[in-house]
Amino acid sequence: MSKTSKTNFVEYLDSYKERNGLDYFTLANMLHLTNMNYIENQYYSEAFIGANHRKSFREISIKDDYETWKRKHEATFTPMPDDFICLKLPNPIPLNDTVPEPCNPTKYQEIDASLNHLGDVLEVLQKYPYQSDTEYNIDMKSLYAAENELKQLNTMVGMASLKTAILDQLVYFLQDLHITRGESDFKHIVLYGPPGTGKTEIAKIIGNMYSKIGILKKNVFKKVTRNDLVAGYLGQTAIKTRKVIEECLGGVLFIDEAYALANHYDDDIYSKECVDTLCEALSDHKDDLMVIIAGYEDDLNNSFFKSNQGMESRFIWRFKIDPYCAKEMMQIFIKKVGDCEWTAPEDLTEKWFEANKAEFPHYGRSMEALFSYVKIAHARRIYGKPKTLRKILNMDDMNAGLKSFLQHKKPEDKTRKLFQSMYL
Questions:
Q1: How far does CA 256 lie from the centroid of its chain?
Q2: 411-418 contacts: CB < 8 A, separation 24 or more?
Q3: How far is residue 110's CA from residue 128's CA, in Å, rounded to a whole number?
Q4: Reduced to 3 states, what is the DSSP secondary structure of residue 53?
Q5: Eight-class DSSP state of 113
Q6: Whole-number Å distance between alpha carbons of 407 and 170
Q7: What is the pLDDT of residues 353-392, one digit of tens each?
C-alpha cells in the first residue's frame, strides 16, 4: 500500500488557507483525509510519539493488508474527483475563530436608571447594548438574555399591576436575595384571574425568562389539570403526582384551575392524596422547581389554600390579573386582527365593545371566537366581489359576526357569567 506523501498532504491543507469558509461536505472530506493520513503514515507509532507517551494516545492497530484495504474501500468519504457531484448544505462553517468572551471585564459602566416599569428596562437595554468586556452596576447580561420575554410581557394588553409585580420578582431574583445560606426561598407563584386573561401565556413567559437567566436550570414547562394528577385508585394518585413533578424538575409545573384539586377535599381521598403530595414537593424541590397555579382568587383562597395548612406559606408570589375593560378588549381584538394580516374597521369604537361586554365572559378567548365569526360573515359579504375587498373588515361584518357568535354560545355561558359576577 502506498502511503500518502507528507508534502502533498501539507499542500492539500495549505490550499484552504485563503478560504473564508467550508461547506459541510468539504469539511467532512478534509477530516477523513486527515484521519487516513494519520493511519497510513502510522503517526501513532513510538517513532513519532515516543515510548513514554504511548498511553496518552489511542493505539490504532493495522492487523494485515485486508484491514488496510477495507478501511480505504469502505470509508464514508473519499477524495472528490473533478466530476464529483454532491449536494452542498448551506451555512458554511467559518474558518476564522470567533473571539471568546473575556473572562475579566476591562471596562466599567454605571447605569443610572430607575426600573419602575417593564418599559424602563427595555429602554435601558436599547440605550446600553450589552458588552461582554464591560462590568455594570446592574446585571445587564441577565436582562439582555431575558429581553424577548420582557418585550412579550410589555406588549400584552393591560395587566399594569401584574407587569410591575413580575418586574419586582425579577429584580429580587437577579440580586440573589432569594438565597439564604445556599438555600432558595420559595419561587412558587399564584396567578389570580378569570379564564381568557392570558394566564397560560404569562406562565410560559415566566418559565422561559427564568430558564434563560439561570434561576431555573431547564426550559421545561408542563401544563396540567386535576385529571393529570389524580388517579382512580387509592395509592395511585401519589405515584401519578410524583411522576408529573419529576418531569418538571428544573422548570415549571403549571396547574390550571387548581381549586379543582380541593373542591371536595374532606370527602375525596384522592384529592387529599394529591394535595398532600404536592405540598411536600413544594418544599423538597424549592431549589429546582417553580409551581404556578391559576384560577379565580376566591376559589383558590376558599378551597385550595384551605385544603392543606402548609399550602399558603409556600406560595409567596401572588399576581393578580384584573378583568379587561371594554377598551382593552377592543385592543385585544384589533391586535388579533392585525396579527392575522387583516384590517379592522376604521369606525370600530370602544362604545361597541362596551355595549356588548356582557357577552364576552372569557375575554381574550371570546375575542378570538368573535374574530372567527366575523371572518365568516366577511367571507359571505364579499363573495363574488373584487379581491381588493378581501380581509378588510367593516361594521357590517362585526355585527353579523356578533350575531353568529351569540347563536353559537353554549347555554352554560349564561350561568357561568352569573357565577363570575360574584367575584368581579
A1: 18
A2: 413/361, 416/361, 417/358, 417/361
A3: 10
A4: helix
A5: -
A6: 45
A7: 999 999 998 899 999 999 999 999 999 999 999 999 999 9
Grid cell listed for 393: 373588515
Domains, in order of start, for the chain: 6-94 (no CATH), 117-320 (3.40.50.300), 326-421 (1.10.8)
Report how far residue 319's alpha carbon sits from residue 224's, in angstroms, rounded to the nearest whole number: 19
Is the separation of the CB atoms in 365 and 196 below 8 Å? yes
Q: Report CA dihedral (159, 162, 168, 174) to the nearest 10 degrees.
A: -90
Grid cell for residue 118: 417593564
pLDDT per position as a tens digit, 217-263: 999 999 999 889 988 777 888 999 999 999 999 999 999 988 888 86
The residue written with cell numbers 426600573 in the block is 115
C-alpha cell at 307: 385544603
**What crossing angle do the helices spanning 326-339 and 364-382 adopt, rounded to 10°?**
60
Percentage helix, strand, coil, to 5, in the chain?
Answer: 50, 10, 40
HSE of 146, CA atoms in CB hemisphere, 13 A: 32
